[in-house]
Amino acid sequence: MRSLMTELPDEVVQAILHHLPPRSTAALQQTCRRFVNIANEPLLWKIYCQRDFRWWDERHGIKSLLQDATFTGWRDLYHDRQFGARTTRRAINKIVTEETGRLASLKTILDVGYDAKDTLLDLFRTAPSSEDQLALKYWSHAALGCLHRLLAVGEWVRLSAAEAPIPIDRAIAGFDLFILEERTEGDMDDIFARLDSYAASVRSAYPNIDDMTPRQKAIAITAHLQENQWVGIQGDRHYHSLDHMFLGVALFSENRNSIPLISAIIFSHVACHFGLRAAPCSFPFHVYAVVSPPVGQDLDGNPLPEYIRDHDGPIASEETLMYMDPFRSLEPLSPDDLRAQLNFISPSTSAARVEGFLTPAKPRSLMIRAANNIMASGTHYPGEPAFPVDRNLATYAALFSLVTMTDASGTRRHNLTFLAKHFLEFFELDVHLFERHMLPMTGNYMESYRYHEVIQERKDADHVSPPPKPRSDPKNSLVQFKVGQVFRHRRLRYVAVIYGWDPDCRMQEYWITTNQVDRLPNGRHQPFYNAIVDDQSTRYVAEENVVVLQPSEITEDLLNAFPLKLGKWFKRYDHETGTFVSNVRAEYPDD
């Protein structure tokens, strides 16, 4: 019996296939010779690529391909993406189910590149339906964080090594990759798309902007950004709140707040869409945007005399240079205005240094300034930002920026020490990031061998299971509680989950003395438990302070308070037993 499908025109069949999954299209072409060509139509597979994959690794050049009408390799490209997705999914499953080789599996994901993000986010979102929901959610989150950071630092390393000037907006956008986590908006592509939309909004508000003078354009752009509250800090938010330090947060958060450096970058990007030359200048205690007209014009659009035409950079005169302060003002400032401010702030500043403050800042110096702003934020304002930003991730980003952007060997060496400490304490999975980008920077340092040793130790340990602690061993017979039990601290009252234990205190003598362990009734000669607390900290708790909670005492609110990191040690929570199901069986086989 003939299928009605065979009687349909090719165009109708293709329209139907647009709404079917690619596997149905592949199956259809097996049924009839006529459908082979229809199912291989490049435009059909282009739609599948656009529909099924949002994030693309830069090696594909997807923006160029989408604009290239002659490109016909969409089906092959789709299969390449599917292969990357399968590779990523297998690697995550291996990480979840096997306790060794995790760094190697993580490298497999990182080698897939930004293509892996689609799969990692899918695994993160669907984790609650999995048997290993806690582990799957944690490891997909951890892998995505490693991927974001590898891309950001790779961008900085490339930019710092390039002979051409660093695009400051792209460099600053790298900070956002560190803190992006599972948010679906705010990566580099999103940031530039949003900035370009601001330019489109300006053009819509001022249809005749191309007829304006350069001075009028700068004022109009500033007015539009301020009217829409896209620059500056609104309401009563503290200037130093951590969320104000990031370009992507300023563009995608609800409040859109930003410090002067970020506001100046936003203005400068938009201004360049309208033929202006604009860039931030690193003024003391503030950042302005230096604005100069197109070559050969003054700020009022008049042609410049031949002898003062500007071919090598803006000339600091009233006719060719002005300054905008999108953070707090609509009025342009002249070079003399800023010189007067500098004379008031620091009368002894040399003429050369004054001119340095008045010209576009070197991108490296702005990156260092941005990093220092992030580092200082917690000192000036320790409160919670209106838009959630993880402080450890923000500090990590700042330290990486200081290491990659500083030229002075002594300064880089100092910052590298703090970066390594942060890595070892909070981001031990970033072995491949350090190996690829940080180790090459240590080559001239005496302690270079030690950095290499630390990385190699981490890689070696990844292939070795920890020594098992069977309860049949007489020395473990006194350990009363198990991995996965939820308890309340007898004295401090916090709630935590046990993820490891020792038959007696194994901490160093300094820690034992500092925490007055020997003053406990049972002292150091009692079991001690590794525990993760609902405030995200980890503790080492004496058995006499452990009060195990019954299943009826463990509420959903209590469970939801535990951090994502719980999945590093556990698969899921068992409501019936009131315990978390262990995923560290190699070390604790009987728990």
UniProtKB/TrEMBL annotation:
Entries under InterPro entries matching the protein: F-box-like_dom_sf, F-box_dom, Hemimethylated_DNA-bd_dom, Hemimethylated_DNA-bd_sf, SirB1_N
Gene Ontology MF term list: DNA binding
SUPFAM superfamilies on file: F-box domain (SSF81383), YccV-like (SSF141255)
One Pfam family matching this protein: F-box-like
Domain F-box: 2-48
PANTHER family: HEMIMETHYLATED DNA-BINDING DOMAIN-CONTAINING PROTEIN (PTHR31350:SF27), SI:DKEY-261L7.2 (PTHR31350)
Descriptive protein name: F-box domain-containing protein
UniProt organism field: Capronia epimyces CBS 606.96
